[in-house]
From TrEMBL:
Signal peptide: none annotated. InterPro entries: Ald_DH/histidinol_DH, Ald_DH_N, Aldehyde_DH_dom. It comes from Apatococcus fuscideae. Keywords: NAD, Oxidoreductase. One of its GO terms (molecular function) is aldehyde dehydrogenase (NAD+) activity. SUPFAM superfamilies: ALDH-like. Belongs to the aldehyde dehydrogenase family. This is Aldehyde dehydrogenase domain-containing protein. Residues 17-232 form the Aldehyde dehydrogenase domain.
Amino acid sequence: MQATQPVHRDLYIDGKWTQSKKGSRLDVICPTTEEVVGSIPEGTAPDVEEAISAAVRTFQGPWSKSRGSERARFLRAIAQQMRARRDELAALETLDMGKPICEAVLDIDDGANIFDFYADLAEKLDSKQWSSVDIGPENAQDFSTNMRYEPLGVVAMITPWNYPIVQAVWKVAPAIAAGCTMVLKPSELASLTCLELAGIAQEVGLPPGVLNIVTGLGHDAGAALSSSPRVAK
């Protein structure tokens, strides 16, 4: 598959598209033709720290206290947009990492279904909040126990090249459902559909700082993300 025009994308941090602080870019090479079909920013540790700061600020705001039903609306809206743009996203996936277009289409459908799946779970969280826990009749006279579900915090996500959008969605969707914020570093070999996912999140109004995406190399951006003490998981 050949691109009609080069595909160039930026980092997505705090709801905004931005260049990397280093200013350099990585070529996107189509495995089928070995042609350069675009570029992505070479994010480094300072970009990761900026993304984590955005995620921390958003987590400390209203997002982490939002109802599951509110978060479910965003999840369903993202799923809807993925289905509406299925052919475009599948073509981009094939261009970026070389899998057959028929498989790429299935991956986009799978990704949309995952968002819907976690939307259902997010809605169920509301009814489970403060639910009573059976502690046995011998303790019921003196104690009562209730369960409260809380988001963990900032989540780090580092995903591989072979199922770019699906691997990302399996992490992004549950994090949104739980009320976490996140920083995603997709593989430098296949980042384009993950960056498109950020664009979809922006289109549906997902609050800035919930989803942040930093492209770059593992020994720099990946290492900074995986070693940050501000990351909860």
